[in-house]
Design a protein that fits this description.
With 151 residues, this protein is an alpha+beta fold. It contains four helices and five strands. Helices cover 29% and strands 28% of the residues. The structure holds nickel (II) ion.
Length: 151
């Protein structure tokens, strides 16, 4: 069994805030990421698919096919954008790394034909990383594999 990973980096602005809270309360919850004017991050996005090698091709999946799907479905829509305002599939959520990873999974999974999506990891360049393993319960050995996932 193989874990095949494709990573991209994008730059975007966001603000973490709960609409019902004051600026002070949001700062207490989210710290500097609650800055009312927003701020930017250089994000890392890693997509991992799980599978066996096809003996005919020597691949689980073609890296460039996965790359193209990530570029089309996510990168082109988030790079150099304001995540709170500009991205349809991020509306109605607080754009934390966790929420972004889950939404990216939901956007990407229907397009990964023939691949079993294993994880979607979103990292802010300061080393804060969130990995989403999908909506279903995860076997302990897969949790170990995910823990070994790093950007
Ligand atoms: Ni932030």
């Amino acid at each position: 069994m193989f874990l095949v990973k494709v990573s991209v980096t994008f730059s975007a602005a966001h603000r973490l805030c709960q609409p019902g809270l004051s600026d002070e309360e949001n700062f207490a919850l989210y710290g500097k990421c609650s800055n009312p004017s927003g701020h930017g991050h250089n994000y890392d996005l890693e997509v991992a698919v799980l599978g066996e090698v096809d003996p005919a091709t020597g691949m689980v999946a073609n890296f460039y096919d996965i790359q193209r799907i990530i570029d089309r479905e996510v990168f082109d829509k988030v790079d150099h954008k304001n995540l709170n305002v500009d991205v349809d599939f991020l509306q109605g959520i607080v754009p934390t790394a966790e929420n972004m990873a889950r939404r990216f999974w939901e956007v990407l999974e229907p397009h990964l034909n023939g691949c079993r999506l294993f994880s979607v990891t979103v990292g802010e360049r300061n080393g804060n990383v969130a990995t989403y393993l999908g909506p279903r319960p995860v076997a302990p050995e897969l949790l170990l594999a995910a823990a070994a996932t790093r950007l």
